[in-house]
Design goal:
globular, mainly alpha
Amino acid sequence: MPITEQALVAFALTTTIAMITPGPDMLFVLGCGIRGGPRAGLLATAGIATSEAVHIAVAAAGLAALFAAVPAAYMTVRIIGAAYLVYLGVRMIRSRNDDQADTPLADALPGRRAYLSGLMTNLLNPKMVVFTIAFLPQFIDPRQGAVWAQFVVLGAIMIVLEFLVDGTVGILAGRIGGWLRRRRAARRRIDVATGGIFIGLGIRLAVQR
């Protein structure tokens, strides 16, 4: 085992605390689950987990240093990610009265769209890259050797916890949303509320330093 037991326990506890604290990822999954059902919430979580795997690989390669060396790159990626979130939110609000509101719940938010949205919103959040490259190395011990193996182990734990925490939120939100969406007025409010969440997340990403 390339990582000590103490480091694994500390990492698991710290990561769990960070994940159960409501943040952009959890709010995004919550919105997808309410609007599209348990499957959409779970697939949105899968998209976020996929992007986290990419972030972990970036952290392991040290590529996040690019953001420190070229501030414009950080700003560009952040603005693109923020714009994408706002676009998703506006689209949901504008489509609240579409005929799709009367389609079955499973079609309210296609699984593929939920997955890709989760992937893109998290992938285009440079703060996650910076966080990962600042967080993971705290539990890496070069003296243990096999640094890449340590990143793989810690990354796998992070992804599993992502599914356990945000996946649970997405499924529960989907079940609650399913009950609400059977009422026409509630469906419209859900779309507006979900769109508002996404727009708020986009604005937050754009203005935060």
